[in-house]
């Protein structure tokens, strides 16, 4: 589905990501764990094409080299991203936002059903995607839009940000709806509860992948090695294995 080959990124002399290589399969849920500032969101932006092509390495999607493709070109291929802080759109109604200005043909009942999936009542169809909505409400509306888009590869940057802890079940439901439609999910998180929804997970520390595989095991590595981590790239061991 999507393959990262030796992805590198730096700002000035500071290395943010170093030789990140990973393969994502179709219809699976993946999670990237790590503390703030280790390069998780940078990796998401690189996959989406938002880094200005300033990274090293290659990105392949369905066998095609997309390294130099624009955000628009990648979106047309079916890659999309849900932001940690969703945008506001003054004067744009929720109904118009969800249907891309009526370019997506959905009945009001279908839209109401999708809003229910993200914990919103039908009244939201008559509101605007502007500052009158809370961050959590905008997040839920953005999640509804991803259900409608049926992306092939969906990146979620801190999907639970701004919404309550009880939303974990809702987030898992949305991930599974996307994979049931043939899409792949990549969740960027620092919370083990969200990571453990995934089929596979990997841990980024000091810009490198330090552990990968079973989400519960990767979460355990995260808890035992990343608490109080200063992001200094030092050798790490877990159960006698260097990571």
A few lines on this structure:
This protein has 243 residues and is an alpha/beta fold.
What does this 3D model show about the protein?
The protein has a single domain, classed as P-loop containing nucleotide triphosphate hydrolases (Rossmann fold, 3-Layer(aba) Sandwich), CATH 3.40.50.300. It is 30% helix and 27% strand. The two termini are 26 Å apart. The C terminus is likely disordered. The chain is an alpha/beta fold and 243 residues long. It is globular, with a radius of gyration of 18 Å. The longest helix is centred in the middle third of the chain and has 15 residues. The strands form 3 sheets. A 6-stranded mixed β-sheet has the order 6-7-8-3-9-10, with helices on both faces. Strands 2-1-4-5 form a 4-stranded antiparallel β-sheet, covered by helices on one side.
Instruction: Give the structural class.
Output: alpha/beta
Low-confidence sequence ranges: 230-243
How do the SSEs run, as a string of H and E? EEEHEEHEHHHEHEHEEHEE
Query: Helicity level, as a percent range?
Result: 25-40%
**Biggest sheet features:** 6 strands, mixed
Supply Rg: 18 Å
How many helices does DSSP assign? 8
The separation of the N and C termini measures 26 Å
- Number of distinct beta strands: 12
Shape: globular
Q: Which architecture name does CATH use?
A: 3-Layer(aba) Sandwich
- CATH topology (level 3) name: Rossmann fold
Work out the oligomeric state of the chains in this entry: single chain
Give me some keywords for this one.
single chain, 243 residues, alpha/beta, Rossmann fold, six-stranded mixed β-sheet, four-stranded antiparallel β-sheet, 27% strand, disordered C terminus
């Amino acid at each position: 589905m999507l393959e990262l080959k030796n992805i590198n990124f730096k700002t000035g002399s500071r290395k943010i990501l170093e030789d990140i290589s990973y393969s994502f399969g179709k219809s699976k849920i993946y999670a990237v764990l790590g503390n703030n500032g280790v390069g998780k969101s940078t990796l998401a932006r690189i996959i989406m094409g938002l880094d200005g092509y300033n990274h090293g390495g290659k990105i392949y999607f369905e066998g095609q080299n997309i390294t130099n493709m624009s955000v628009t070109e990648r979106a047309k291929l079916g890659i999309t991203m849900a932001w940690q802080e969703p945008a506001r759109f003054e004067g744009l109604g929720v109904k118009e936002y969800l249907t891309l200005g009526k370019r997506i043909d959905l009945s009001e009942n279908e839209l109401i059903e999708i809003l229910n999936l993200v914990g919103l009542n039908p009244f939201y169809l008559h509101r605007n995607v502007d500052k009158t909505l809370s961050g959590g409400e905008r997040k839920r509306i953005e999640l509804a839009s991803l259900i409608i888009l049926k992306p092939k590869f969906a990146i979620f940057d801190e999907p639970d940000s701004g919404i309550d802890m009880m939303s974990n079940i809702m987030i898992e439901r949305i991930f599974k709806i996307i994979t049931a439609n043939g899409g792949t999910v990549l969740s960027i998180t620092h919370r083990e509860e969200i990571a453990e929804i995934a089929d596979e997970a990997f841990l980024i520390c000091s810009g490198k992948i330090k552990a990968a595989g079973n989400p519960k095991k990767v979460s355990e590595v995260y808890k035992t090695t990343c608490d109080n981590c200063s992001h200094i790239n030092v050798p790490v061991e877990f159960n006698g294995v260097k990571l």
